[in-house]
Amino acid sequence: MSDKFDVIVIGAGPGGYVAAIRAAQLGLKTACVEKWIDDKGAPVLGGTCLNVGCIPSKALLESTHQFHKTQHADVHGIQTGDITMDVKKMVARKNKIVSNLTMGVSGLFKANGVTVIQGMGKLLANKQVQVTAADGVETVYAAENVILASGSVPVEIPPAPLTEGLILDNVGALNIDETPKRLGVIGAGVIGLEMGSVWARLGTEVTVLEAMDEFLGMADKDVAKEAAKVFKKQNLDIKLGARCTGTEVNGQEVTLKYTDAEGEKELVVDKLIVAVGRRPLTKGLLADDSGVKLDERGFIFVDGQCRTEAPGVYAVGDSVRGPMLAHKASEEGIMVADIIAGHHAQMNYDVIPSIIYTHPELAWVGKTEQELKAAGVAIKVGKFPFAASGRAMAADDTDGFVKMIADEATDRILGVHIVGGMASELIAQAAIAMEFGSTAEDLQLTVFAHPTVSEAIHEAALAVDGHAIHMANRKKR
């Protein structure tokens, strides 16, 4: 038996590394186990989000957004001539950002006294953790508490097996280093739409196949409808009710076979990205006698404070119920570390923002209009378009709107849904308001700076009661 720790965290993604830092800050002797290594054999920290997910995808989205803006700069009177994109340089920049951030996590571990243990972690009985290092050496550690933060992996589908350089998951998609002429994407979710947007901006013909008949079923219908309209203008060809039935690799091309309402069809592309969702990475994580239970989909069973059924063992992030979002994982990690240290901690699962980083961005927090109506809640709704925002006009970024939903009886804000150029930043204002139990009137009485795109939130709050100033209000029936 090796050293004993107060806390051992398995997984150094946004749930695990944050939990480890918080636990160490609270005076607990903490170790974090991570199996991922670089080409020098050193642990790679930050998990999927930092290395092959949230951060690198945003770097590519930002580069291609800047390219697109420059191409269309003549609207501002800027004459640019021919614009080209050095894709290899774009990818190198993305890799540099990832490298800086992973080194940053390593520095934070050092600063907070977190011990990094390289290897594959497995929970044994009695809060013991077996770690199998890259060289195969096994070591068993003991802990007073264990936090499982093993994350998730992409779902693979039999009709489209991954093929080096041609049929790709999210990792492969982030490393395409030249602009494909034709790109196929299976799945019109967050990853599919973001990666499709990256290449559509660089001139690629992008076709997105979505098996569901409804576009963005998790979003408010108004957001989904507006997004579909905007993406169509951006030459994203999104085919709904289209189910992949097979693929054939012919040299450097992929023939994608699918069925839709019209029958069987084929599509030939140069690259194919499979983005049909993610599943919890719990295989090999638990010994049979660990005391931790999985549900039928492989998620770790936990209560509202992320306790498993094994005393002293917690689980956070993508491997447990709830949205697979980095910020949800991080906040769960903080909650658990606080609980272990003896503090009161509770997370508000009703106020977790979701964002899709296309342009315009899509963001929401709280309930959709459809969810509230289905639950029989009497609501009032206010909408304000960015087309009526002076700041959005000045930025030539007027697509979209802010939609606010409030309880008709109490005026409490129940949901905010945004399509717009800065939706990812604006949604935090809504989340803060909802966290404090704000009413629409509270925001109506708040002074917003002019001219800002944030004023659209103010106006949407006013519109809830038919009092928007800078647009004509709908007459109440």
Automatic annotation (TrEMBL):
Matches recorded under Pfam families: Pyr_redox_2, Pyr_redox_dim
Cellular compartment(s): Cytoplasm
Residues engaged in binding FAD: K58, G121, D318, M324, L325, A326, H327
FAD/NAD(P)-binding domain mapped to chain residues: 5-333
Membrane is among the record's keywords: no
Binding-site list for NAD(+): G187, A188, G189, V190, I191, G192, L193, E194, E210, G277
Disulfide bond sites: C49-C54
Annotated EC: 1.8.1.4
Domain Pyridine nucleotide-disulphide oxidoreductase dimerisation: 352-461
The keyword Protease is assigned to this record: no
Gene Ontology MF terms: dihydrolipoyl dehydrogenase (NADH) activity; flavin adenine dinucleotide binding
GO cellular component: cytoplasm
GO-annotated biological processes: 2-oxoglutarate metabolic process
Catalysed reaction equations from the record: N(6)-[(R)-dihydrolipoyl]-L-lysyl-[protein] + NAD(+) = N(6)-[(R)-lipoyl]-L-lysyl-[protein] + NADH + H(+)
Known cofactor(s): FAD
Entry annotation: catalytic residues: H450 (proton acceptor)
Further details from the record: The active site is a redox-active disulfide bond.
Protein family membership: Belongs to the class-I pyridine nucleotide-disulfide oxidoreductase family.
PANTHER family from the UniProt entry: DIHYDROLIPOYL DEHYDROGENASE, DISULFIDE OXIDOREDUCTASE
Protein name: Dihydrolipoyl dehydrogenase
Protein species of origin: Amphritea opalescens
